[in-house]
Amino acid sequence: MFSFPSLPAGEPSTRNWYQELLDHPDCLGDVYKVQEAYESFRQDNLSKSISLILPTTDDGGNDDNTSPPQQAPIVPDQVLIEHLKRSTPSRGGESPSSRITDPLDAQDVNCEGILARPSSKVIAAIAAIQSRLGDLLGSDIHLIPASDLHLSVLELSHRHTLAHLRAVYTHLGPALIATMLDLPHTRPLISMPDAAEIPDATPNPDFPNPAPRLIRPMLLFDQRGVALTFVPTAVAATPLHAPYSYHHLRADLQAHALRSGLAIDTCYTAPTAHVTLGRFVGTQAFFARAGAAAHFVAVVHEINEQLRTGWDSAEGDGDGDGEWVVAGERGLEWHLGYLKFGRGSEMAEMVGKSSL
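RESULT FIELD:
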């Protein structure tokens, strides 16, 4: 199975990691190789998380006792805990997050990027999973509100003041940003390697240009929380368009930004498409009694089996009900600010076209 190494956080760069994956000799733009990269990444991460929470004993079994392993498998998110305290309404009824001046604006904690909102079907599936997790973990998990659920499509600037992010927005300009946000529905004739020259992206009514799709939802967890992940599938080729995927879209978005002369800095770049469902704020539910951690892992496996067998049209070849059409029900959104734990669509700087 094809895999591709993730890119750790670093200094601002003009690299297009997304295109590098597509150009790899073992991929060469093959959508199904791209899918393999996303699949291998999430399978490896789930295996690592399980081995951390259920360490293997000398006889090959799992050591599930009431004492956490030396390396903590579950790490309560202290930043989130403080964030929730700040977001609690004051005695006067005013939420700190609603104030005109946010003290976080002047701190190097803000980010800028493009978000996609889950489809109605995905939100319904997430609600059912969150209900199960809430019953299982109680107050040890903070479940992300439906209005804040999102997929991070592309990050352009990470951990800066709001003033810095505004400068990035101004550098790119509203016209280029609008072009980028509309790209799922007006993708170019070819996914360009370096975007020095991007072809005409005008839609042709004779050859519909559907937005990229995500399929095969799978629940993952790590030390910090739980997420629902997907893998890209191919948008069929037409006489005008080569096969395309969600990852091709990310490569093209990055190319547009780099073409403007912007150097991009991100927290972490990886072959993943995930929506965070909840973050851990306690550990009691995992280690208060013998077998609790193993039960949690068993529930994750059970949910994944239900997703595998119950998600309609896994390859998206029927009525499309089994796919998440990226920017289908709502266009891509451009956000800047404190994005670490999500935010509502109403706070977007700009919203692109949708399929509706």
